[in-house]
Amino acid sequence: MEDHLKLILVFVPLVAGAIAIFFALRLMRIYKLAFVSSYFYYLVFLYIFGVYSLVGSGALEHFFMRMETGLDIIHSTRLFAILVGIPLLILSKYMLLKSITELFSKKLWPSFTLVYFLLSLISFGVYGVFVVRLTKFESGEYQALVTVQRWVFTSFLVFIYGMVYLISMVLSRRLVHHERSFARTFASWYLLFGIISSATFILSGLHEIIPFIFIFFFLSWHLIPILFLYLYLEKYHGETAAVQDNFEEMLVLFSDKYEISKREREVIHLICKGLSNQEISDALFISLQTVKDHIHRIFVKTGVKNRVQLSNLIRTE
To answer: pTM for the complete prediction?
Structure first.
């Protein structure tokens, strides 16, 4: 009975994860929103990591144990399988952070991206050296490495999903009600995901069924937020997806015609979304006076006197 339960706890999340990716791909093709595209790649990288490093390493361990292979080979194979998949995990979490910032029409700072991948590379290198040095180990050393792996992995998960939640809580204040509600619900789901994943992974040594419960949550959890995202986009972006895509193209052509700079085009985009000068200042991380200067130059170049005339001119052009 327990073997059947293990198979269910592996098979169901594999199917659920694939369905989530399928839905994300559909949404990416329909709505062409930056944050949906980044979220799709987050799911893809995470799914590959889960299938290869978690399910795959476990299957290899089970196969070698049936072949009565030595414990040193079994442990080494599992650790190296997880090690090779770690870059996929790092990429997936970066794409999630990128997605959540793009949801608020922002971009991750280049300095943050540099620091994130630099620290990830250093951590990956240190862990890799640790694994290589312990390819020939006693049982106690192996358990020590597994314990370190669990705590590092869970700390990483909690940190990333904590950041997602914090970013959403802070930046969603400037959104309209339905956007704010979606952003906070979406972030809350992933904070809960991080907590559950961390708890089950830390406790996985207590019983042989717990690692399978961890895999179940790790791969199948995303089906819930992707369905929520599907309903949200269908309700609030269904009629505007094509219009938004055309507006972006119009804005580029408009900017070329009136010699609008890239930064001024960003200001125009936010003006057309209905943001105030202060909100534009916060969104672009520039001073309020700089926003006013950009708007003045835009009005001069286009010959308009206010925001309404500017929006009408863009659509007319």
So the answer is: 0.70
